Amino acid sequence: MDLAYVWFFIVGVLFVGYFVLDGFDFGVGMSLPFLGKDDIGRRQIINTIGPVWDLNETWVIVAGACLFAAFPEWYASMFSGFYLPLLLILLALILRGVSFEYRHQRDSLRWKKGFDTMIVVGSAVPALLWGVAVANIVQGVPMDAGHEFTGSLLSLLNPYGLLGGLTTLLLFFTHGVYFVALKTDGQVHEDARALARRSGMITVVVAAIFLIWTIFIAAGHGAPLMAAVIGCAAIAAVCLIMSILFNLRDREGWAFGFGAVTIVTAVLTLWFALFPNVMVSSTDPAYSLTIENASSTDYTLTIMTWAAVIFLPLVLAYQAWTYWVFRKRVSRSRIEKAAALAH
Q1: What is the mean pLDDT of each run of 10 residues along the chain (343 residues)?
Q2: Which residues make Cβ contacts (< 8 Å) with residue 145, sequence separation at least 6?
Q3: Other Cβ atoms closer than 10 A to 324
Q4: Considering the entire predicted model, what is its pTM?
Q5: Which residue(s) pair with 289 in the sheet?
Q6: Where does the UniProt annotation locate this protein (predicted)?
Q7: Whose CA is closest to 131, among 90, 93, 172?
Q8: Within a domain: residue 341?
């Protein structure tokens, strides 16, 4: 197979990894107003992702760098056309990262509440806008013969794009609440299970509508991998339902695992629906960017392939080791003891 096609799926895998890992970070951040009844509870929630959130976030840097190197035309068209949404995502990620680091620098409740609000906003904005961006790439955006985006921010805020954003927002939220239930004890654990039940039911309905709509869009574009599109959408639906059922049985590990597979297969549904295009033109299909006309040279892709073969297993091993080291639950009693010693 041509290396350009291989790298189309490698980039897809990198974005899958980012959405799964940083996705539950977003969900944890968005859950603060619903689960954090007091400062100890909010610290318990934030500490579930404290050791891993920055490592999870690096996946988008790697994905963006690979996209730039493997598909420079795609990178240029997407980042110029989606400049404002991507800038808002970047600012939100900065806001969230700063809040994690500065929240504990003072004992003032007003100080902490302000940074908690920024964590919520910094988590919700990317969770929404990533879905809007990817949905528009699949559906198609206005582009001219030179592959220049000719629309505006309002053209991205169409019904399918907004539904995509709402779907990722709800998927990440539920995924994050599963993680909180998995990593905490006491009242926060019980509240997270109850919240996941409610959010999970809403997510099923919204995600089902979005995936069915995606299937129709892929069929309208004549996507050659329709069997994969339908298959991944079906698996995503089943896994989402299974995650809800396991949460009802207080099997939070299984619930979180099925939630992760839901996001994996949902993103793959979009990726298969996009193939062999990388950016569909709604102006004229002839103006669309494809894997072949957007990719770098074979020499560049060959060097990238060797680099990926050598370094990607090391990155995965390091991340797996990090999660193993911080695998224990974040207990409320330990945070209370630490707070008592601090005073």
Answers
A1: 89 95 95 89 91 90 93 91 91 93 85 92 96 94 88 87 96 97 92 94 96 95 93 96 95 95 96 94 89 92 92 90 90 74 62
A2: 284, 286, 287
A3: 8
A4: 0.94
A5: 279
A6: Cell membrane
A7: 172
A8: no
Give pLDDT tens digits for 150-163.
888 888 899 999 99
Indicate the helix (H) or strand (E) that contains 278.
strand 277-279
Domain of residue 70, residue span: 3-282+301-336
> Which CATH number covers residue 55?
1.20.1630.10
DSSP string across 228-273: HHHHHHHHHHHHHHHHHHHHHTT-HHHHHHHHHHHHHHHHHHHHHH
Q: Which residues pair with 290 in a beta bridge?
A: 277
The alpha helices in the chain, defined as continuous H runs, are 3-30, 32-35, 39-47, 53-70, 72-81, 83-102, 109-139, 153-156, 159-183, 186-220, 226-248, 252-274, 291-294, 298-325, 332-342
Domain count, the chain: 1
